[in-house]
Amino acid sequence: MVMNDEVAACVQAGAAAAAVHRTREAAVMAYLAPLLALAAVHEENFSVFIKEVLFGPPGQHRDAALGQVQRIEAALCGLLAQRDDREPQPPQRQDADLTNAARALAFAVLLEVSSSRLGLHPATTTTERVRAQLDLVLHGILRPRAGDAQ
Description:
The protein is mostly helical. The chain has helices spanning 2-18, 24-41, 43-55, 60-81, 98-118, 126-141. The chain has one domain (2-141): Tetracycline Repressor, domain 2 (Orthogonal Bundle). It contains six helices and no strands. Helix 2 (24-41) packs across helix 3.
């Protein structure tokens, strides 16, 4: 499946783009930008990729697509784990499960891309909705600062 190769190239480009950012949010959004651009340019093919990930029959194409998603999850997990250089910042929760947070974010991206293709949220862009999903994930892994409402 050609889209697996395209996604692999986006994973590499995203990793390079994320490396120059000093905050989790900026690094994650830079990492995801090539994937979101690919999805916007090749809506139908990217939708087939998503369908393969979620519902494809066992076999070579699905294994390759799932491998790409696993690479995305692993990269997101690493980006979520990095120290955020903004001050002041809430510390990461000790019980934060970054693997599940990364998985949730990866599948939120697939969901938001699908929603865009279906025209479900015309008032916002896919990138805006992904940024909102990232915000939810970040708030889930960080402890509130002293004095913040819980």
